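Sorry, can you check?
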Amino acid sequence: MNDEVLEAQLANRDLLPDAESFLSSYKTKDVDDDTIQKRIGHLEEFSKWIKSNGHSLNELDFEDVEDYIDSLKEKGYKSRTGELYVSAGSMLYSRLLKKGEIDASPFDRIQISDYFNTRESYQAAKLKDDDGVVWLSPEEVNTLTEHVPAPET
């Protein structure tokens, strides 16, 4: 996605400034447009929740993140969708930690499988062989091949 398109996508969104800065960093990465669009939506939802609950990024704690997860479940988000929304928030905090803008992430103690029936729990059971080896589904193999860069020669 080129700079102008990304800036236009971010212009009319209800995002916290740190979330917008995080998304702008995608300009320098090889990320497909669909992934960026989804991440914008995930972070917009997170930003709206923070604002509507009177929080700021600097003051969010573990219990607040649990409340956010509960709000996603109340909206009827399925496991995989909930995982993606929580992951977006976690990635934002990871970036803020790396930049030294915060001291700790409220997502550090979050284990997504404690809140959602993750794909691993219900798909892995289907994909185990008799020896207990877990195999990737064709969809997972395609996802990996699309997002792993080609080796350098």
Observations:
- The longest helix spans residues 33-52.
- The mean pLDDT is 76.
